[in-house]
Amino acid sequence: MHQPAISHLAAEDPQIAGLIEAEAQRQFEKIRMIASENYVSTAVLEATGTVLTNKYSEGYAGKRYYEGQQFVDQIETLAIERAKELFGVDHANVQPYSGSPANLAVYLAFLKPGDTVMGMALPHGGHLTHGHAVSATGKWFNATHYGVEAETGRVDMNKVREAALEHRPKLLIAGGTAIPRTIDFPAFAEIAQEIGAILLADIAHIAGLIAGGAHPSPAGYADVISTTTHKTLRGPRGAMLMCKEEHAKALDRAVFPGLQGGPHNHTTAGIAVALREASTDAFKAYAHQVVANAQALAAALTERGFDLVSGGTDNHLILADLTPKGIAGKPAAQALDRAGIELNYNTVPFDPRKPFDPSGIRLGTAGLTTRGLTPEQMPQVAQWMDEAIVAAVKDDGAELDRIAGEVSDLLSGYPMPGYASE
Ligand SMILES: *Cc1c(COP(=O)(O)O)cnc(C)c1O
Fold first, then answer.
1. Is the pTM above the cut of 0.85?
2. Which residue of 34, 233, 389, 401 is 20 to 30 Å from 97, comparing CA positions?
3. 231 assigned to active site
4. How far is CA 145 from the centre of its chain?
Protein backbone atom coordinates (compact mmCIF):
# COMPACT_ATOMS: atom_id res chain seq x y z
CA MET A 1 0.00 0.00 0.00
CA HIS A 2 1.04 3.55 -0.75
CA GLN A 3 2.48 5.41 2.27
CA PRO A 4 1.10 7.85 3.35
CA ALA A 5 -2.25 6.10 2.78
CA ILE A 6 -4.45 7.52 0.02
CA SER A 7 -7.82 6.58 1.53
CA HIS A 8 -9.58 9.86 0.58
CA LEU A 9 -8.42 9.47 -2.96
CA ALA A 10 -9.54 5.83 -3.04
CA ALA A 11 -13.04 6.88 -1.89
CA GLU A 12 -13.35 9.78 -4.31
CA ASP A 13 -11.53 8.51 -7.39
CA PRO A 14 -10.88 4.76 -7.20
CA GLN A 15 -9.64 4.70 -10.78
CA ILE A 16 -6.70 7.03 -10.14
CA ALA A 17 -6.11 5.60 -6.63
CA GLY A 18 -5.93 2.09 -8.09
CA LEU A 19 -3.35 3.14 -10.64
CA ILE A 20 -1.23 4.86 -7.97
CA GLU A 21 -1.37 1.72 -5.80
CA ALA A 22 -0.31 -0.36 -8.80
CA GLU A 23 2.62 1.98 -9.46
CA ALA A 24 3.71 1.82 -5.80
CA GLN A 25 3.74 -1.96 -5.98
CA ARG A 26 5.60 -1.89 -9.30
CA GLN A 27 8.28 0.33 -7.75
CA PHE A 28 8.51 -2.06 -4.79
CA GLU A 29 8.98 -5.19 -6.92
CA LYS A 30 11.49 -3.98 -9.50
CA ILE A 31 15.17 -3.18 -9.37
CA ARG A 32 14.81 0.39 -10.51
CA MET A 33 17.99 1.37 -12.30
CA ILE A 34 16.93 4.32 -14.44
CA ALA A 35 19.90 6.54 -13.62
CA SER A 36 17.84 9.71 -13.14
CA GLU A 37 15.36 8.12 -10.73
CA ASN A 38 15.28 7.41 -7.01
CA TYR A 39 12.90 6.84 -4.09
CA VAL A 40 12.13 9.95 -1.99
CA SER A 41 11.59 9.61 1.74
CA THR A 42 8.12 9.45 3.21
CA ALA A 43 8.82 12.87 4.78
CA VAL A 44 9.46 14.35 1.32
CA LEU A 45 6.31 12.68 -0.01
CA GLU A 46 4.28 14.16 2.82
CA ALA A 47 5.66 17.67 2.26
CA THR A 48 4.76 17.57 -1.43
CA GLY A 49 1.20 16.44 -0.73
CA THR A 50 0.10 19.38 1.43
CA VAL A 51 -2.05 22.52 1.29
CA LEU A 52 1.00 24.44 0.11
CA THR A 53 -0.25 23.53 -3.35
CA ASN A 54 -3.14 25.99 -2.76
CA LYS A 55 -0.94 29.07 -2.49
CA TYR A 56 0.29 31.56 -5.09
CA SER A 57 3.60 33.26 -4.28
CA GLU A 58 4.91 35.10 -7.36
CA GLY A 59 8.08 36.95 -6.47
CA TYR A 60 10.61 36.22 -3.74
CA ALA A 61 10.45 36.20 0.07
CA GLY A 62 9.64 39.70 1.32
CA LYS A 63 8.82 40.88 -2.25
CA ARG A 64 5.67 39.00 -3.24
CA TYR A 65 2.79 40.12 -5.41
CA TYR A 66 0.04 38.51 -3.32
CA GLU A 67 -0.72 38.59 0.41
CA GLY A 68 -0.68 35.64 2.79
CA GLN A 69 3.01 34.71 2.51
CA GLN A 70 3.69 34.55 6.27
CA PHE A 71 4.60 30.86 6.14
CA VAL A 72 5.55 30.31 2.53
CA ASP A 73 8.26 32.98 2.85
CA GLN A 74 9.75 31.05 5.76
CA ILE A 75 9.60 27.76 3.91
CA GLU A 76 11.30 29.14 0.79
CA THR A 77 13.93 30.92 2.91
CA LEU A 78 14.71 27.68 4.74
CA ALA A 79 15.10 25.84 1.44
CA ILE A 80 17.47 28.55 0.16
CA GLU A 81 19.54 28.62 3.37
CA ARG A 82 19.84 24.83 3.36
CA ALA A 83 20.92 24.80 -0.30
CA LYS A 84 23.56 27.47 0.33
CA GLU A 85 24.92 25.61 3.33
CA LEU A 86 24.93 22.18 1.70
CA PHE A 87 26.59 23.23 -1.56
CA GLY A 88 28.73 26.07 -0.19
CA VAL A 89 27.38 28.75 -2.53
CA ASP A 90 26.54 32.46 -2.12
CA HIS A 91 23.09 32.34 -3.61
CA ALA A 92 20.36 29.81 -4.40
CA ASN A 93 17.06 29.99 -6.27
CA VAL A 94 14.75 27.07 -5.52
CA GLN A 95 11.88 28.08 -7.80
CA PRO A 96 12.66 26.49 -11.21
CA TYR A 97 9.92 24.02 -12.08
CA SER A 98 12.41 21.44 -13.29
CA GLY A 99 15.91 21.04 -14.71
CA SER A 100 15.03 22.12 -18.26
CA PRO A 101 13.45 25.47 -17.32
CA ALA A 102 16.31 26.04 -14.84
CA ASN A 103 18.80 25.74 -17.68
CA LEU A 104 16.71 27.95 -19.94
CA ALA A 105 16.79 30.60 -17.19
CA VAL A 106 20.59 30.57 -17.38
CA TYR A 107 20.44 31.28 -21.14
CA LEU A 108 17.95 34.09 -20.49
CA ALA A 109 20.12 35.59 -17.76
CA PHE A 110 23.35 35.78 -19.74
CA LEU A 111 22.69 35.49 -23.49
CA LYS A 112 20.87 37.06 -26.43
CA PRO A 113 19.28 34.85 -29.09
CA GLY A 114 21.91 33.81 -31.62
CA ASP A 115 24.79 33.88 -29.10
CA THR A 116 27.18 30.94 -29.11
CA VAL A 117 27.00 28.23 -26.44
CA MET A 118 29.06 25.07 -26.03
CA GLY A 119 28.01 21.92 -24.21
CA MET A 120 28.53 18.18 -24.37
CA ALA A 121 26.97 16.58 -27.44
CA LEU A 122 23.74 14.72 -26.68
CA PRO A 123 24.90 11.41 -28.25
CA HIS A 124 28.02 11.61 -26.05
CA GLY A 125 26.12 12.16 -22.79
CA GLY A 126 24.98 15.79 -22.89
CA HIS A 127 21.43 17.01 -22.25
CA LEU A 128 18.82 18.32 -24.70
CA THR A 129 19.02 21.74 -23.02
CA HIS A 130 22.75 22.00 -23.75
CA GLY A 131 22.00 23.27 -27.25
CA HIS A 132 20.66 20.15 -28.96
CA ALA A 133 19.05 20.91 -32.35
CA VAL A 134 15.50 19.90 -31.36
CA SER A 135 15.58 21.97 -28.13
CA ALA A 136 14.75 25.69 -27.90
CA THR A 137 18.35 26.08 -26.74
CA GLY A 138 19.54 24.72 -30.10
CA LYS A 139 16.98 26.59 -32.19
CA TRP A 140 17.45 30.01 -30.59
CA PHE A 141 21.18 29.90 -29.91
CA ASN A 142 24.26 29.04 -31.95
CA ALA A 143 25.15 25.72 -30.31
CA THR A 144 28.48 23.96 -30.63
CA HIS A 145 29.53 20.78 -28.88
CA TYR A 146 32.40 18.77 -27.49
CA GLY A 147 32.33 15.02 -26.92
CA VAL A 148 34.28 12.04 -25.65
CA GLU A 149 37.21 10.30 -27.33
CA ALA A 150 36.43 7.13 -29.27
CA GLU A 151 39.19 5.07 -27.62
CA THR A 152 38.73 6.17 -24.01
CA GLY A 153 35.06 7.16 -23.78
CA ARG A 154 36.29 10.17 -21.79
CA VAL A 155 36.37 13.91 -22.40
CA ASP A 156 39.82 15.21 -23.38
CA MET A 157 40.02 18.66 -21.78
CA ASN A 158 42.69 19.79 -24.28
CA LYS A 159 40.18 19.17 -27.09
CA VAL A 160 37.49 21.07 -25.18
CA ARG A 161 39.92 24.00 -24.87
CA GLU A 162 40.74 23.90 -28.60
CA ALA A 163 37.05 23.88 -29.52
CA ALA A 164 36.32 26.68 -27.04
CA LEU A 165 39.14 28.83 -28.47
CA GLU A 166 37.81 28.21 -31.97
CA HIS A 167 34.10 28.90 -31.30
CA ARG A 168 34.38 31.37 -28.40
CA PRO A 169 31.08 30.48 -26.68
CA LYS A 170 29.59 33.02 -24.25
CA LEU A 171 28.26 30.10 -22.20
CA LEU A 172 30.24 26.91 -21.58
CA ILE A 173 28.33 23.99 -20.06
CA ALA A 174 29.88 21.14 -18.07
CA GLY A 175 27.80 18.10 -17.15
CA GLY A 176 25.26 15.80 -18.74
CA THR A 177 22.88 12.88 -18.48
CA ALA A 178 25.02 9.92 -19.40
CA ILE A 179 28.51 10.64 -18.11
CA PRO A 180 30.00 7.76 -16.08
CA ARG A 181 33.19 9.64 -15.19
CA THR A 182 34.24 12.46 -12.87
CA ILE A 183 33.75 15.92 -14.36
CA ASP A 184 36.85 18.12 -14.20
CA PHE A 185 35.28 21.40 -13.03
CA PRO A 186 38.63 23.19 -12.40
CA ALA A 187 39.70 22.49 -16.00
CA PHE A 188 36.37 23.76 -17.36
CA ALA A 189 36.71 26.89 -15.20
CA GLU A 190 40.18 27.58 -16.58
CA ILE A 191 38.88 27.35 -20.15
CA ALA A 192 35.87 29.55 -19.40
CA GLN A 193 38.17 32.14 -17.85
CA GLU A 194 40.53 32.07 -20.82
CA ILE A 195 37.72 32.88 -23.28
CA GLY A 196 35.63 35.08 -20.96
CA ALA A 197 32.67 32.68 -20.95
CA ILE A 198 30.13 32.04 -18.22
CA LEU A 199 30.61 28.50 -16.91
CA LEU A 200 27.44 26.55 -16.12
CA ALA A 201 27.91 23.32 -14.19
CA ASP A 202 24.78 21.22 -14.74
CA ILE A 203 24.96 18.72 -11.87
CA ALA A 204 21.42 17.33 -12.28
CA HIS A 205 22.62 13.72 -12.12
CA ILE A 206 25.38 13.99 -9.55
CA ALA A 207 24.02 16.60 -7.10
CA GLY A 208 23.47 13.99 -4.39
CA LEU A 209 26.98 12.61 -4.85
CA ILE A 210 28.40 16.13 -4.55
CA ALA A 211 26.28 16.88 -1.47
CA GLY A 212 27.50 13.63 0.08
CA GLY A 213 31.15 14.20 -0.82
CA ALA A 214 31.35 11.37 -3.37
CA HIS A 215 32.09 13.64 -6.38
CA PRO A 216 34.11 16.91 -6.48
CA SER A 217 32.00 20.07 -6.26
CA PRO A 218 31.85 22.81 -8.89
CA ALA A 219 31.32 25.41 -6.14
CA GLY A 220 34.05 28.03 -6.44
CA TYR A 221 34.69 27.06 -10.08
CA ALA A 222 31.39 27.49 -11.93
CA ASP A 223 29.63 30.85 -12.28
CA VAL A 224 26.31 29.08 -12.12
CA ILE A 225 25.32 25.62 -10.92
CA SER A 226 22.04 24.13 -12.09
CA THR A 227 20.57 20.96 -10.72
CA THR A 228 17.42 18.94 -10.57
CA THR A 229 16.42 17.95 -7.07
CA HIS A 230 14.96 14.50 -7.84
CA LYS A 231 17.87 12.39 -9.09
CA THR A 232 20.72 11.37 -6.76
CA LEU A 233 19.76 14.29 -4.47
CA ARG A 234 16.60 12.30 -3.63
CA GLY A 235 14.14 15.18 -3.38
CA PRO A 236 10.86 15.99 -5.13
CA ARG A 237 10.75 16.78 -8.85
CA GLY A 238 12.13 20.27 -9.12
CA ALA A 239 15.33 22.21 -9.66
CA MET A 240 17.65 24.82 -8.22
CA LEU A 241 20.07 27.41 -9.55
CA MET A 242 23.05 28.40 -7.45
CA CYS A 243 25.65 31.07 -8.12
CA LYS A 244 28.17 33.58 -6.90
CA GLU A 245 26.65 36.76 -5.46
CA GLU A 246 27.49 38.82 -8.58
CA HIS A 247 25.04 36.78 -10.69
CA ALA A 248 22.26 36.49 -8.11
CA LYS A 249 20.04 39.30 -9.42
CA ALA A 250 20.33 38.30 -13.06
CA LEU A 251 19.44 34.68 -12.31
CA ASP A 252 16.53 35.51 -10.01
CA ARG A 253 15.07 37.88 -12.63
CA ALA A 254 15.45 35.26 -15.33
CA VAL A 255 13.49 32.67 -13.31
CA PHE A 256 10.82 35.19 -12.25
CA PRO A 257 9.45 37.15 -14.03
CA GLY A 258 11.59 36.07 -17.01
CA LEU A 259 10.33 32.54 -17.44
CA GLN A 260 7.94 31.50 -14.72
CA GLY A 261 4.94 32.59 -12.69
CA GLY A 262 4.23 31.32 -9.20
CA PRO A 263 6.64 28.84 -7.61
CA HIS A 264 5.33 25.40 -6.63
CA ASN A 265 5.34 25.86 -2.86
CA HIS A 266 4.61 22.22 -2.06
CA THR A 267 7.70 21.30 -4.10
CA THR A 268 9.74 23.99 -2.34
CA ALA A 269 8.84 22.41 1.01
CA GLY A 270 9.83 18.98 -0.30
CA ILE A 271 13.15 20.40 -1.53
CA ALA A 272 13.79 21.93 1.92
CA VAL A 273 13.14 18.56 3.57
CA ALA A 274 15.37 16.72 1.08
CA LEU A 275 18.20 19.23 1.58
CA ARG A 276 18.02 18.70 5.33
CA GLU A 277 18.20 14.94 4.79
CA ALA A 278 21.13 15.40 2.39
CA SER A 279 23.14 17.21 5.09
CA THR A 280 23.18 14.19 7.41
CA ASP A 281 25.94 11.62 7.94
CA ALA A 282 23.51 8.95 6.79
CA PHE A 283 23.25 10.69 3.42
CA LYS A 284 27.05 10.93 3.12
CA ALA A 285 27.18 7.18 3.65
CA TYR A 286 24.39 6.78 1.08
CA ALA A 287 26.27 8.82 -1.56
CA HIS A 288 29.42 6.73 -1.13
CA GLN A 289 27.41 3.51 -1.18
CA VAL A 290 25.80 4.57 -4.49
CA VAL A 291 29.27 4.79 -6.04
CA ALA A 292 30.46 1.54 -4.40
CA ASN A 293 27.41 -0.25 -5.78
CA ALA A 294 27.93 1.18 -9.27
CA GLN A 295 31.58 0.14 -9.27
CA ALA A 296 30.78 -3.35 -8.01
CA LEU A 297 28.06 -3.71 -10.65
CA ALA A 298 30.38 -2.39 -13.37
CA ALA A 299 33.05 -4.93 -12.40
CA ALA A 300 30.54 -7.79 -12.39
CA LEU A 301 29.11 -6.77 -15.77
CA THR A 302 32.59 -6.48 -17.28
CA GLU A 303 33.38 -9.98 -16.03
CA ARG A 304 30.29 -11.17 -17.90
CA GLY A 305 31.46 -9.64 -21.17
CA PHE A 306 29.53 -6.37 -21.11
CA ASP A 307 31.28 -3.54 -22.97
CA LEU A 308 31.12 -0.50 -20.69
CA VAL A 309 31.70 2.96 -22.15
CA SER A 310 34.97 4.27 -20.63
CA GLY A 311 35.51 0.81 -19.11
CA GLY A 312 33.68 1.48 -15.85
CA THR A 313 32.34 4.26 -13.67
CA ASP A 314 33.36 6.90 -11.10
CA ASN A 315 29.80 7.77 -10.11
CA HIS A 316 26.28 6.28 -10.01
CA LEU A 317 25.98 5.67 -13.73
CA ILE A 318 26.93 2.90 -16.16
CA LEU A 319 26.62 3.03 -19.94
CA ALA A 320 26.93 -0.29 -21.78
CA ASP A 321 27.27 -0.99 -25.50
CA LEU A 322 25.35 -4.24 -26.08
CA THR A 323 26.75 -4.91 -29.56
CA PRO A 324 28.94 -7.81 -28.28
CA LYS A 325 25.82 -9.34 -26.69
CA GLY A 326 24.12 -9.53 -30.09
CA ILE A 327 21.17 -7.32 -29.17
CA ALA A 328 20.25 -3.64 -29.49
CA GLY A 329 19.45 -1.42 -26.51
CA LYS A 330 15.70 -1.19 -26.95
CA PRO A 331 14.77 -4.89 -27.10
CA ALA A 332 17.22 -5.51 -24.25
CA ALA A 333 15.63 -2.79 -22.08
CA GLN A 334 12.17 -4.20 -22.80
CA ALA A 335 13.22 -7.74 -21.90
CA LEU A 336 14.97 -6.53 -18.74
CA ASP A 337 11.81 -4.69 -17.70
CA ARG A 338 9.85 -7.92 -18.01
CA ALA A 339 12.56 -9.56 -15.90
CA GLY A 340 12.04 -6.99 -13.13
CA ILE A 341 15.05 -4.84 -13.98
CA GLU A 342 14.11 -1.35 -15.07
CA LEU A 343 16.56 0.78 -17.06
CA ASN A 344 16.58 2.68 -20.35
CA TYR A 345 17.97 2.14 -23.83
CA ASN A 346 20.56 4.77 -24.66
CA THR A 347 22.83 6.01 -27.41
CA VAL A 348 26.50 5.20 -26.88
CA PRO A 349 29.21 7.57 -28.19
CA PHE A 350 29.74 7.13 -31.97
CA ASP A 351 26.66 4.90 -32.09
CA PRO A 352 26.10 3.59 -35.63
CA ARG A 353 22.41 3.00 -34.81
CA LYS A 354 19.55 5.54 -34.63
CA PRO A 355 18.72 7.43 -31.37
CA PHE A 356 15.32 5.75 -31.12
CA ASP A 357 16.88 2.30 -31.57
CA PRO A 358 20.43 2.67 -30.23
CA SER A 359 23.15 0.18 -29.27
CA GLY A 360 23.28 0.75 -25.55
CA ILE A 361 21.63 0.80 -22.17
CA ARG A 362 22.10 3.28 -19.32
CA LEU A 363 21.68 2.33 -15.69
CA GLY A 364 22.31 3.81 -12.26
CA THR A 365 22.45 2.69 -8.65
CA ALA A 366 20.78 5.61 -6.83
CA GLY A 367 17.45 3.81 -6.41
CA LEU A 368 18.66 0.33 -5.48
CA THR A 369 21.03 1.89 -2.93
CA THR A 370 18.12 3.71 -1.30
CA ARG A 371 16.45 0.30 -1.03
CA GLY A 372 19.47 -0.94 0.90
CA LEU A 373 21.22 -3.19 -1.63
CA THR A 374 24.99 -3.49 -1.19
CA PRO A 375 28.05 -4.28 -3.34
CA GLU A 376 27.84 -7.97 -2.27
CA GLN A 377 24.57 -8.23 -4.19
CA MET A 378 25.81 -6.63 -7.41
CA PRO A 379 27.20 -9.87 -8.94
CA GLN A 380 23.68 -11.32 -8.56
CA VAL A 381 22.17 -8.27 -10.28
CA ALA A 382 24.73 -8.60 -13.10
CA GLN A 383 23.90 -12.31 -13.42
CA TRP A 384 20.18 -11.56 -13.75
CA MET A 385 20.92 -8.89 -16.36
CA ASP A 386 23.11 -11.29 -18.33
CA GLU A 387 20.56 -14.10 -18.12
CA ALA A 388 17.75 -11.76 -19.20
CA ILE A 389 19.72 -10.59 -22.21
CA VAL A 390 20.50 -14.17 -23.26
CA ALA A 391 16.78 -14.95 -22.82
CA ALA A 392 15.86 -11.89 -24.91
CA VAL A 393 18.11 -13.04 -27.75
CA LYS A 394 16.40 -16.48 -27.60
CA ASP A 395 12.95 -14.89 -27.16
CA ASP A 396 12.47 -16.94 -23.97
CA GLY A 397 9.64 -15.22 -22.09
CA ALA A 398 9.38 -17.91 -19.43
CA GLU A 399 13.00 -17.31 -18.43
CA LEU A 400 12.33 -13.57 -18.11
CA ASP A 401 9.37 -14.30 -15.85
CA ARG A 402 11.51 -16.62 -13.71
CA ILE A 403 14.07 -13.82 -13.20
CA ALA A 404 11.29 -11.32 -12.36
CA GLY A 405 10.12 -13.70 -9.63
CA GLU A 406 13.62 -13.95 -8.14
CA VAL A 407 14.08 -10.18 -8.29
CA SER A 408 10.81 -9.54 -6.51
CA ASP A 409 11.67 -12.19 -3.88
CA LEU A 410 14.93 -10.43 -3.12
CA LEU A 411 13.37 -6.96 -2.96
CA SER A 412 10.57 -8.09 -0.65
CA GLY A 413 13.20 -7.98 2.13
CA TYR A 414 14.14 -4.34 1.42
CA PRO A 415 11.68 -1.64 2.53
CA MET A 416 10.67 1.10 0.16
CA PRO A 417 9.81 4.58 1.45
CA GLY A 418 6.33 5.40 0.17
CA TYR A 419 5.12 1.83 0.38
CA ALA A 420 4.09 -0.60 3.10
CA SER A 421 3.64 -4.32 2.41
CA GLU A 422 0.28 -5.59 3.62
C1 LIG B 1 17.61 15.50 -15.98
C2 LIG B 1 18.48 16.58 -16.53
C3 LIG B 1 17.99 17.85 -16.86
C4 LIG B 1 16.53 18.17 -16.98
O5 LIG B 1 15.73 17.94 -15.95
P6 LIG B 1 14.13 17.82 -16.12
O7 LIG B 1 13.70 17.98 -14.72
O8 LIG B 1 13.88 16.49 -16.72
O9 LIG B 1 13.69 18.95 -17.00
C10 LIG B 1 18.90 18.82 -17.24
N11 LIG B 1 20.21 18.57 -17.29
C12 LIG B 1 20.71 17.37 -17.01
C13 LIG B 1 22.18 17.14 -17.10
C14 LIG B 1 19.87 16.33 -16.63
O15 LIG B 1 20.38 15.11 -16.38
1. yes
2. 34
3. yes
4. 21
Catalytic choice (231, 234, 330, 362): 231
Confidence of residue 377 (pLDDT cuts 50, 70, 90): very high
Does residue 175 have its Cβ closer than 6 Å to ligand 1? yes
Catalytic site residue from 29, 202, 351, 387: 202
Q: How far is the CA of 36 from the centre of ligand 1 (A)?
A: 8
Distance CA 116, CA 143 (A): 6
- C-alpha–C-alpha distance, residues 419 and 422, integer Å: 9
Annotated active-site residue 245? The verdict is no
Minimum mean pLDDT range among 271-275, 400-404, 418-422? 418-422
The reported pLDDT for the residue numbered 421 is 86
Residue 370 and residue 382: Cα distance in Å, rounded? 18
Determine whether 390 is exposed, middle or buried from the number of CB atoms within 10 Å of its CB (0-12, 13-18, 19+).
middle
Q: How confident is the model at residue 33 (pLDDT cuts 50, 70, 90)?
A: very high
Domains of the chain, first to last: 47-278 (3.40.640.10), 288-411 (3.90.1150.10)
Q: How many whole angstroms from 421 Cα to the centroid of ligand 1?
A: 32
Q: Which atom of ligand 1 is nearest to the CA of 177?
A: 15
| CA atoms in the 13 A half-sphere facing the CB of 71 | 8
Question: In the 3-class helix/strand/coil scheme, how is 303-324 assigned residue by residue?
Answer: HCCCEEHHHCCCCCEEEEECHH
Rounded mean pLDDT, 387-406? 98
Predicted local confidence at residue 244, as pLDDT: 93
Question: Contact 221/190 with Cβ under 8 angstroms?
Answer: no
Ligand 1 atom closest to the CA of 98, numbered from 1: 7
With cut-offs at 50, 70 and 90, classify the pLDDT of residue 26: very high
Is 80 exceeded by the pLDDT of residue 63?
Answer: yes
Q: Which of 100, 106, 319 maximizes ligand 1 atoms within 8 Å of its Cβ, making it the mutation to test the pocket? A: 100
Does the C-beta of 267 come closer than 6 Å to ligand 1?
A: no
Which of 55, 84, 154, 237 does the annotation list as catalytic? 237
At 180-190, the pLDDT tens digits run 999 999 999 99
- Please state the φ and ψ torsions of residue 385, each to the nearest 5 degrees: -60, -45
Contact 99 CB / ligand 1 (< 6 Å): yes
Query: In the annotation, is 374 catalytic?
Result: no
* pLDDT mean over 46-50: 98
Instruction: Give CA–CA dist 339/407, Å, rounded.
Output: 8
